[in-house]
Amino acid sequence: MENKFFKDKLPFLIQPDNVARYEDGRVYILDRRVYPFQRNYVECKTYDESAQAVIDMVTQSGGPAHVVTYGMVQAARQAKGKSKDKMLEELERGAKVLGHARPTNNNIMTITKNFLAMGRDAVEKGLDAEEILHK
User: Fold this and answer.
1) CB-count exposure of residue 41 (10 Å: 0-12, 13-18, 19+)
2) Which side of the chain, N or C, has fewer Cβ within a 10 Å radius?
3) Interval 105-134 mean pLDDT
4) Within a 13 Å sphere around the CA of 15, how many CA atoms are in the beta-carbon half?
5) What is the C-alpha separation between 92 and 29, in angstroms, rounded?
6) First and final CA of the chain: distance in angstroms?
7) pLDDT tens digit string along 49-101?
8) What is the pTM of this model?
């Protein structure tokens, strides 16, 4: 059970949805280049845009982990409707692009490898990879 009282008391940057969130195939990332002076969000429509946001330092500290996680969900979404082989190729490309977006951050490589494995498993089983990865 979520403790709403506690969550509302957390500082702004510790609340994950304030760092990055996934909505209808888009990733919204708090722009740390201007925060705390402004609370702007960068909208990323594709995993390539999400990776570029990581490269451009839109997000910092633990933020890249959130962004590449949602970027892998975007890759699964972008793969929908393609043949099984093309879906797997899209997921692999997503993992490569996102995993290398911040070469000094080993955590994002681990995340993308794990999400790639879960996405492959979903595709092989005929499941909705976007839904599986977004859980």
Assistant:
1) middle
2) N
3) 97
4) 13
5) 23
6) 16
7) 999 999 999 999 999 999 999 999 999 999 999 999 999 999 999 999 999 99
8) 0.91
